[in-house]
Amino acid sequence: MSIFSKIKDAIFGKKAEAREAPRTQPSGHGTTDAPVIEAQPRPVIDVENHLDSMPGADSLNWRTSIVDLMKLLGIDSDYEARKALAIEMGREDYAGTAEDNIWLHRRVMNGLAANGGKVPAEFLD
């Protein structure tokens, strides 16, 4: 599992599987009814409120620090993990500088927004 997937799962939960609905729909063959499978829509998650409500959020600077964001979510935040995450997010030359970490934090927030999260504009590019 990718590191970004771990971040998404920690915030959004596991992907909702399509569930079988309790009703049936005629199959058109007259004698058999086929179950109707409907994907359940994923609710929009307010990322800021969700992260603020997590235990330990008040002692971490998750709003600007990728290290603190990863710590809050229980994901390894060492250099190697951040480098792997940066590569996933499209940056091969990640060196762990402050500029790199700011870029990585913004990319993660943009990724969360692209996956249906409600993310404040100040966290985005």
UniProtKB/TrEMBL annotation:
It comes from Qipengyuania mesophila. SUPFAM superfamilies: RPA2825-like (SSF158634). Residues 3-120 form the DUF3597 domain. Residues 15-39 are annotated as: Disordered. Pfam families: DUF3597 (PF12200). This is DUF3597 domain-containing protein. InterPro entries: DUF3597. It comes from the Bacteria.
